[in-house]
Each structure stands twice: as structure tokens, then as C-alpha cells.
Amino acid sequence: MATTATRTLFQLSGVSKTYRMGEVEVPVLHDVDLEIYAGEIMVIVGPSGSGKSTLLNIIGGIDSPTAGDVLFQDRDLAQLNERELTAYRREHVGFVFQFYNLVPTLTARENVLVSTEISRTPLDVDEVLEMVGLGDRKDHFPSQLSGGEQQRVAIARALAKDPTLLLCDEPTGALDLSTGRMVLELLDRLCTELGKTVVLITHNNPISHLAHRVVKLGQGTIAEARVNTERRSPHDIQW
Ligand SMILES: Nc1ncnc2c1ncn2[C@@H]1O[C@H](COP(=O)(O)OP(=O)(O)OP(=O)(O)O)[C@@H](O)[C@H]1O
């Protein structure tokens, strides 16, 4: 199943990133050109240190490139100041991390509620928790939930502010296979049913079977970018 999404959401051109630590320069991304289409699942794979998180952070407005343009709906994120980047993140980006990053002293519902409070157009918290299959676990604290359930709370939190895109950094990295598949299935549903754009980075090459498009990073450059013509259901993916 190939993607039907063709509207360009992001256009990265000549993006480079070099970290400077005193006298030492660490070049991480070199002249990356990449388009991300609205409503697609893009999986970015690559070995450790190839620059996946750096690229995701630039797309998410957490980090800025040293050179190049990051056009998002005709705005260049590389030119935004801190205040504008914060507004961009609040309005458009939902983050999902490997280790969930939930507030341990808040219930599932409260963890999700916090994110809606910084949004101008939040979704209904209870509906979102139902959507991720946790309608009956709303009042439980993270320590009372399994890893997979905590990740679903984290996805609900990312989703509840109704972002344009979900940026997922190894979302299945801490989960066993069957729980990881449930998380991928949920992300797939958010793409197909709600039209969310999903960018997911992973070490696990087989997860790229879920993608509409797959990008391979190698040492800070795009080694390969391809359309995945034979998408697989998460239940048929093994890693
Ligand atoms: N803030 C920073 N300062 C200096 N170097 C950094 C910084 N952040 C990342 N790096 C370096 O940039 C390179 C790429 O890191 P990045 O985290 O983007 O890679 P990655 O592909 O996501 O790796 P992994 O899969 O291990 O998470 C690494 O060599 C890392 O040490």
C-alpha cells in the first residue's frame, strides 16, 4: 500500500548541524534535503550516532540547524526565535519518547490534562484516553500501569493538544514485541483515522515496514529515501 499523501508539510534543504563544545566541533548532519508529506508515516532508521535524534529535534523545533532551511507551511523554523519556536512546538508538535516521561505523581488523566492546558485547540481528554484504550485506567498513576499502558498515556498526552505531527523517538524501544506492536498499531490509527503526520526514529529496521516512506541515515547524510510499496500491519512485523 503506497502513500496517497502528497502535500508537503516540511521541506528541509541543505540542513547541516555541527555541535560546538569549546574548541571542538562535532559535525552531525551534512547537507540534508528531505520532504515530509502531510498524513504520512515516515520511519527514519540508522545506526547509533547517525544523527536521527538531531534531525528529529530540528523538525520538532527543539534544536536549530547550523545551516540550511526547515520550511514548515512556508515558515522557516531555522529563522524563528525562542519564543516563536516555543509557540510552534505547542501548537504543532506532539513528542513521544522511549521512556514515556510521564509525571509520576499525576494520574493518567492528569498527565494528559497538563498538555491540553498549553494548547489553544485541545481535544477532550476523556475521549483521547478512550481512543488509546485506557478509558478504564484514567485514575491510575504511572507506577500502576504497564510499560505499554504508560506509552499509550504518553501518546494520549502528545495527541490531546491536537498537534499537526507526532515525533516519536524509539517509541517501542522499552517494550516487548506484542506491546510494541500495539503501540505501532495505535500510531498507525492516528495517521489513518485522524490524519496525523508521524515521524518515527528507530534502530529496528523491521519497523520500517510500517512506513509510507523510509529514510536511512548514515553518518549524518541520507543514505537512502524510498517509498515503501508493501506496507505491513504491525501484527506482521517482527523485530
Ligand atoms: N548536544 C550535543 N553536543 C555535542 N554532541 C552532540 C550533542 N547531541 C548529539 N551529539 C552528537 O551527535 C551525534 C549524533 O547524535 P544523535 O543523538 O542525533 O544520533 P542518533 O542516530 O539519534 O543516535 P542513537 O540512535 O544512539 O540515539 C553523536 O555523535 C552525538 O554524540
Automatic annotation (TrEMBL):
Secreted keyword on record: no
Molecular functions per Gene Ontology: ATP binding; ATP hydrolysis activity; transmembrane transporter activity
Assigned keywords, A-Z: ATP-binding, Nucleotide-binding, Transport
Keyword ATP-binding included in the entry's annotation: yes
SUPFAM superfamilies: P-loop containing nucleoside triphosphate hydrolases
GO (cellular component) term, any one: plasma membrane
UniProt similarity note: Belongs to the ABC transporter superfamily. Macrolide exporter (TC 3.A.1.122) family.
Protein name: Putative ABC transporter ATP-binding protein
